[in-house]
Each structure stands twice: as structure tokens, then as C-alpha cells.
From TrEMBL:
Gene3D superfamilies: Endonuclease Chain A. Residues 213-240 form the PLD phosphodiesterase domain. Pfam families: PLDc_2. SUPFAM superfamilies: Phospholipase D/nuclease (SSF56024). InterPro entries: PLD-like_dom (IPR025202), PLipase_D/transphosphatidylase (IPR001736). CDD domains: PLDc_SF. This is PLD phosphodiesterase domain-containing protein. It comes from the Archaea. It comes from Natrinema ejinorense.
Length: 285
């Protein structure tokens, strides 16, 4: 039976130390070497482990392996717990071969005329957003309270790629059926999208507003297939993507699941109204 003191925490810590010390292709060989030294029987020492192991362990690496096993009671002066040994080395192999965690990326729009700010401080918001949009294969959400026709022209090739991939597009904004001149930029953006032969048939538009209290939204989110998302300060406007100082994050980790859950919940909200364009006018449907 495995050592009774080998709790999940100690198992993980020991496996992690082994995975960081021994190349994954040599984990089985180092384990077999330890078993051989024990059952030969021979003294399990740093020197013996280095001499017989299938990889060129340094003295420090061999010391780490033996010390970790001794610390957890897997190896003692007169005993080697074979079952526990297999357990920690098996766990080490899993840790060593698991996919590296996805990394999030801080992105920014840096004004070109501000000499105090270096363009290389962050990755470009515009370029990363284009890549995010192009990656969509199933569902693409563009959520922005403000839009502009010039932004549509910037994003159009990436949007075409997304719909060519098979993605449906959802645009969530405001000021489509109300707002007078305040909504002119939004209406121009949505009109261009709906009239685009590559986009119109694959795009559904919404506005989020409480008609009584005028409660609305100010969030800026671009979500591709529920696995990659932009969240930040930039609206989907030419200034947000190219002129203003804007900051945001491209999320690739499980945070995107929360954004996806929010978007799904919005579909049930009484404040979200589907909008269509009919005879040059926007109407709720």
C-alpha cells in the first residue's frame, strides 16, 4: 500500500519536484534505477543513482530526488515503498507532459503622438483583437456601447474570416432604435455589417437598455467561441482601436467561461432587445 503519510498535497509537491528535476523521458529509468538499487540490494546513494541512472543527473539533481523521497518516507535506510514510488513518478510524468497553461496578454492602444509612452510597453490591442476575431469558428460576440464605421472598415477582413470559418456574429450595443444623433455612429456600424454580403446573413444585433430607467451598459467585450476574449477600456471605434490610450487583456484561460456565462444570461434578460433593419430603419423584433 502507498505510504499513509502521502497526502494529496505531499504527492503533488513530490511529483512536481521530480518533474522539474528529471527529464520526462528518463522518469521511468530513474524510478527503475531506485528499485534496482533497493532490491539488489545496494545502498541508495547520490553517487549510485548518478552512476546507474539512464540520464546524466548532476549531483544536485540526484540529491533532490533522494531527499524528496526521504522527506515523504517513501525511502528510508532499510525500506523503499514501491507502490508510493510508482505513484509519485507516475504523477510526475503527468505533470511533465500536461499542456502548459494558457497565458493571458495585456494589450494597449498607445497614442503615437505621446512621446512619453513607448509603443513596445504592451502588445498592440488592435492586432490582438484582429487575431481574436479571426480565430472564431462557431460564435463571435462584439459587445461595445460605442461603435464606428471606421472601426468596421478596420475589422471587416477579420470578420469575413470568422464567418468563412463558420462563426455566427452577435453585436450587442445601444442607441439603435433610440438616442437620436447620439446613436448615429452605432447605427452606421451596424448598417455596414448587415449590408455586408459576407456578414449580414450571419449577424444578429441587439441593444441593451431599460426603457424606463435608461439603465444600460458600459462593458467592452469581444468573445470568440467561449475560449478567447478581449476585455478592456476600448470601444469598437476608430479612436479606441487606434488613437486613444486604452488598456485591456486578452483572456485565454478559464476566465472566458465567466464571460460566456454572462453573454448567455443576457439572452434571457428583459433589457436585451433584438434589433433588425427594415426599410432603412432599426426596429425591435
Amino acid at each position: 500500500m502507498p505510504n499513509s503519510d502521502l497526502t494529496p498535497d505531499t504527492l503533488y509537491a513530490t511529483a512536481e519536484a521530480l518533474a522539474e528535476t528529471v527529464p520526462v523521458e528518463h522518469l521511468d529509468g530513474v524510478r527503475a534505477t531506485l528499485e534496482y538499487l533497493h532490491h539488489a540490494p545496494r545502498n541508495i546513494s547520490i553517487k549510485a543513482l548518478r552512476n546507474l541512472s539512464p540520464c546524466a543527473l548532476t549531483e544536485q539533481e540526484a540529491q533532490i530526488v533522494i531527499l524528496r523521497l526521504e522527506t515523504e518516507g517513501i525511502l528510508t535506510d532499510d525500506h523503499l515503498d514501491d507502490c508510493a514510488l510508482h505513484l509519485v513518478f507516475g504523477a510526475a510524468r503527468l505533470l511533465a507532459t500536461e499542456d502548459a497553461p494558457l497565458e493571458n496578454t495585456v494589450v494597449a492602444t498607445i497614442p503615437y503622438d505621446d512621446r512619453a509612452l513607448n509603443q513596445s510597453m504592451f502588445e498592440a490591442l488592435h492586432d490582438n483583437m484582429l487575431s481574436l476575431i479571426r480565430s472564431a469558428e462557431d460564435d463571435l460576440v462584439l459587445m461595445s456601447p460605442f461603435l464606428s464605421e471606421r472601426a468596421y472598415r478596420r475589422l471587416r477582413p477579420a470578420l469575413h474570416t470568422a464567418t468563412d470559418n463558420g462563426a455566427d456574429v452577435r453585436v450587442i450595443t445601444r442607441y439603435l432604435t433610440y438616442g437620436g444623433d447620439d446613436g448615429e455612429y452605432n447605427r452606421k456600424f451596424v448598417t455596414k455589417v448587415l449590408e455586408d454580403s459576407y456578414l449580414g446573413d450571419y449577424t444578429t444585433c441587439y441593444e441593451y437598455i431599460d426603457d424606463e430607467t435608461w439603465t444600460t451598459f458600459h462593458a467592452k467585450l469581444v468573445l470568440a467561441d467561449n475560449h478567447t476574449a478581449y476585455l478592456g477600456t476600448a470601444n469598437i471605434t476608430h479612436k479606441g482601436l487606434g488613437d486613444n490610450l486604452e488598456l485591456g487583456v486578452i483572456f485565454r484561460d478559464r476566465t472566458t467561461e465567466q464571460f460566456a456565462a454572462l453573454v448567455d444570461a443576457l439572452q434571457e434578460s428583459e433589457l436585451l432587445h433584438q434589433v433588425a433593419r427594415d426599410s432603412g430603419q432599426f426596429i425591435r423584433i
